[in-house]
Structure prediction request, 311 residues.
Amino acid sequence: MSYRLIVMGACVLFLAVVLVKVFPTPAPEDPGASHGDGWAFLHAFEVLGVISFLASILHSVRNHGARHTYLLFPALFLYAFIFEDVNIQLSGVYEYNESAWMIVHNTMLVIPLGWCAIVYCMLELTSRVPGFSKMKAFNAAFIIATLALTIDLGIDATAFAYGFWTWNEGWFFGVPLMNYVGWFIVVFLFIMGLKLVEGKDRDTLGEFGWMYSVVIGALIAQIFLFVIFLGILYLAGVV
Amino acid sequence: MRIMKMFDEHWPHLFIVGVHIYFLAVAVFIERYDLLLIGIAAFMISVLMIGYFTGPHCSGGRVKNHDGDERP
Prediction:
């Protein structure tokens, strides 16, 4: 099983590298200007994002019950929002289009809502596979994070070219490699935490306590990985 | 209701396909056909991987419906 996962991941990376060599990587001529449509696609993106979020909640309530939904979605939203907002504030390598209708602090509201819908849909799809719930946390997190990454592979470059958000420097059609690494890590850590506490004795903290310990744990793990990454760059003489 | 049953069964697929198609439409609108090609490639990878991991090949020939029933 594990070698198939590695082959899958390698194929995605290989395709990305090949495509970036084959095609040019121009940045938008004027990232601040709309394309003559008054940012219609941006606003439609926001509306559809909210609808997708609500539909995912409805789906979760109907299929997994209200208790499961109240545990998962607020925790997931909080996790995604904190990550996005802190990341924008600290890294400064990207910013969202100021013409968006729904911006909270530095973050387009639809982004954490979209994260919720994406992670929920991936969890739902994989939960239908017999035996998936018994799979090791690492393998399950790897699969779901890779599936989520394939979604971003197609959308991020187009979103940047249209002007949904702006990257200061790019590698793949204007999108930096760290974006894709970040996508993978964000989903991986959350699912990893979720799978690790699933089925455990929750008397000590209660179910809400467990869910938010996943959020806090995943955020701390991200900071840890970020510090290691910076350390490697420092040792390599890049920063 | 039939439509809600379909919603329960297919919402995750519908969402993923919808996201890809939306951004393919954006690529066409801004006339970035290189990005359209990238989007189609990513769409194919996404569908293939989801089909692989959640289909009968990876699950020993057994796939569950949303309500937990197994179907061949």
Observations:
- Strands of chain B lie at 63-64, 70-71.
